[in-house]
Amino acid sequence: MSEQIQAKKTPPKKDSSPSFIKLAMKNMVRKGQQSLIHFGLTATGLIVFILILAWLGRPTIPQ
Questions:
Q1: Alpha carbon 54 to chain centroid distance?
Q2: SS (H, E, C) the chain
Q3: Cβ-count burial 49-63 (b if 16+ within 10 Å, e if not)
Q4: Residue 52: which pLDDT band, with cuts at 50, 70 and 90?
Q5: pTM of the prediction?
Q6: Rg of the chain, C-alpha, whole Å
C-alpha cells in the first residue's frame, strides 16, 4: 500500500537529456583535481594574455 502512495507522489521522469551545465557540473565533481588544475591554467593564461596586450599597447609619452 505504501508503495502505491509513494508512486503517486513522485512526478514522472522526463525523457529529455540533462542540460550542458548539469553535465559540466557533474564532470567537475567527478574529476575535481583535474578540473581545478585546468581552471587555474586557463585563468593564468588569460591574465598573462591581458598583461601582454596591455604592455604592447601602452602609450608612449614624448619628453
A1: 27
A2: CHHHHHHHHCCCCCCCCCCHHHHHHHHHHHCHHHHHHHHHHHHHHHHHHHHHHHHHCCCCCCC
A3: eeeeeeeeeeeeeee
A4: very high
A5: 0.52
A6: 25
With pLDDT > 70 as the criterion, what percentage of the chain qualifies?
76
State the angle between helix axes of 20-30 and 32-56 in degrees (0 to 180), rounded to the nearest 10. 110
Domain boundaries, the chain: 33-57
What one-letter code names the amino acid at 33? Answer: Q
Span 14-44, pLDDT tens digits: 667 778 889 888 887 888 788 889 999 999 9
